[in-house]
Amino acid sequence: MDKILQWSIALQSGDQETLKKLGAPDPKMLQQLFGGPDEPTLMKQAITVVVNPDSELEAKEIAFDNFEMLIENMDNANNIENIKLWSPIIDQLDASKPESLRVYAASIIGTAVQNNPNSQEAFIKYPGLQALIDIASDPATSSELLLKALFAIASFVRNYEAGYLKFDELDGWKIINLSRDSNHKVKLRILSLISSILSTGIDAKKEEHISKAHMTEFLASVLAKDGHAGCIDKVLNIISQLAELKYQFSASEIATFSQGLSNVEHMEELSTDDLHAAKKVIN
Length: 283
Prior knowledge:
Elements: H1 2-13, H2 16-22, H3 27-34, H4 39-51, H5 57-70, H6 74-82, H7 86-91, H8 99-113, H9 117-123, H10 128-137, H11 143-157, H12 161-169, H13 184-198, H14 204-212, H15 215-225, H16 229-244, H17 251-264, H18 272-282
Helix pairs in contact: 1-2, 4-5, 5-8, 6-9, 8-11, 10-11, 11-13, 13-16, 15-16, 15-17, 16-18, 17-18
Pfam family, one: Fes1
Family: Belongs to the FES1 family.
Organism: Suhomyces tanzawaensis NRRL Y-17324
């Protein structure tokens, strides 16, 4: 009760630092104290606003924002399927929709399926992955929308074999080739996607895709000339993943990684464990 009181005072005064420190109050507690509809009803109400052609854009954005906060709770994320809201959410990815709503839709998808097998299994039944791959493949896509689309794809694929197979079927691998001249934020998302792909294991077909997508060349280029600690650390982690999966590094890949590691091993902010694991690959 004391926390809710502090949160209410901070909200009224606009004290963002205190709001951030306290975090959002438990919605169930608020409902018990102040009454009102249950969370699935709130979710349906929010999407009703989003799809209503007479709603102002600002009202739709607020509704989507409230919806995303609700589905940070895994039970509510799973309720997206139970109350049949996946289709209207995915519809907001369409190029005809306002940019802000497309961003919210992609972010909501990523949040709902992240580390959530039930939502992954529900989402795969809809055409959302195709829409996300189209967004990520479109050179005209804004940076903000691209980042959210990549986040959603990586979250959907991670540790979910059926999701990876759908990604493969839809030629999602072409996204890896978009990373050559990307900024660091986009590169990090691409690297997270690669890590998600590897989370489902490796076989001959996946090794063929790795070769065709020039994935190891991309990893080596980050080591050789990127200079961004976050990207480099992620590459080291991926090299470790590949080694654990018994990926057969070619002599040229080992030589290229060796040169790249010599360029970055002096960086103190890198993960020591991943650096040592990557070094084992070239020895």
